Amino acid sequence: MAYVSFEYFDKAVGAPGNRLVEPVRKAPFSHILSASQFTIDDVDDFCQLADDFEAGFLPAQLSRRAVGLLFFQSSTRTRLGFEAATVALGAHAIGMDDMSASRSNAKIGESLEDCAAVVSRLCDAIVVRHHEPGAAARMAAHAEAPVINAGDGWNEHPTQALIDIYALRRGLGTLRGKSLAFGGDPRGRVVRSLMQLLRFEGPREIVFCPPDKYDIPADVLSAIAEFQIPHRRISTIETALIECDAIMMAPYDMSAIGEPAASDYVAPHATPEAYTITPEKIERTRSTALLYHPLPRFDEIAPACDKLPNAMYFEQVRLSKFMRMAVLHRLLSR
Fold first, then answer.
1. pTM here?
2. DSSP class of residue 39?
3. How far, CA to CA in Å, does 327 sit from each of 82, 85, 86, 173, 323?
4. Rounded mean pLDDT of the chain?
5. Top-level class of domain 158-317
6. What does the DSSP assignment read for 243-287?
7. Is 181 a residue whose pLDDT tops 80?
8. Cis previous bond, 268, omega within 30
9. How far is 290 from 313, CA to CA, in rounded Å?
């Protein structure tokens, strides 16, 4: 899928190859809370801008801008990714190392609404992760600055979905006509957000490969039906290795997020062998399927796969910085 092209005002600054660019583009979002709010033009816009940042283009100076990182739920990649993107844009990331020590928690009792009202008067944007579904939207309703949902319980993770689409496009060239498999727990927030963006990509089919105990959420199936994307369920990951162009893996044990309220099934701490990806399975099936994973991984992809040409998950991390820069730039250019 072709990206949208933009005009730029270029001015050479600093070292050779560094350029100051200020793209002429539409008004920024008020908040980023759900992947459902994006249009195809938005997705193409973000991907184009991420490409530009990777190529070495620099935005106008944002040195006086501050991004508040409010992570009420533990995070490594998302937190450090937004911090790295903020620094790369010339802005400043501020926040607390442990939000459980904040007064905005259940023990002390300051509301999320008050927290948003306070922090948004100190920062130019807020990135929030919280264990409660809808927490980001609650904060956005009382914030004076844009709020980015970096994961709200089992609900959504819209910026990760943008990263995944960007990485899939880079690996496959296009998703149109391709078979995309989902391994691991299909109930997670990454899957829910990614489904909203797949409506623009035209995949041939979506293939789910969860253990028998897991049901595919009704809202995910409803979205697939609405977008008229064929789907099926398979019982072994080897089928996906043979028949699919890419596999988006996820942990089978999602207890770090917490079981969904509607579930009485506790995930196992070890992935059943039929659902793990190993070099032996890749060699046996002669698979060229590209392997993606939002991370962290546990035992669902063997570390010995890391050096194989199929492995794209660490490249996915590298690309995530540029996509997060694109998201922040669009919000900070208010």
1. 0.87
2. -
3. 10, 9, 10, 22, 6
4. 86
5. alpha beta
6. H-SEEE---S--TTT---TT--PPPPSS--GGG-B-HHHHHHHT-
7. yes
8. no
9. 9
> Are 69 and 94 spatial neighbours (Cβ–Cβ below 8 Å)?
yes
156: its two tokens: 């959504």
3-state secondary structure of 75: coil
> 114: which 2 tokens?
């008050």
DSSP code per residue over 89-114: TT-EEEE-S-GGGSSSSTTT---HHH
Report which secondary-structure segment, H or E, holds 136: helix 135-140
Asked whether the CA dihedral 178, 196, 159, 129 is positive or negative, the reply is negative
Around 133, how many Cα atoms within 13 Å sit in the side-chain half-sphere? 10
d(CA 96, CA 83): 12
Where are the domains positioned within the chain? 8-156+320-332, 158-317
Same fold, 8-156+320-332 and 158-317: yes
Are 179 and 205 a contacting pair, CB within 8 Å?
Answer: yes
Q: Residue 12: pLDDT band by 50, 70, 90 thresholds?
A: very low
Q: Is 198 helix (H, G, I), strand (E, B) or coil?
A: helix
Long-range contacts, 100-109 (Cβ 8 Å, 24+): 100/72, 102/72, 104/70, 104/72, 105/72
- Asked if residues 52 and 25 have their Cβ atoms less than 8 Å apart, the reply is no
**Mind listing the pLDDT tens digit for each residue in 231-250?**
999 999 999 999 999 999 99
CATH superfamily placement of domain 8-156+320-332:
Aspartate/ornithine carbamoyltransferase (3.40.50.1370)
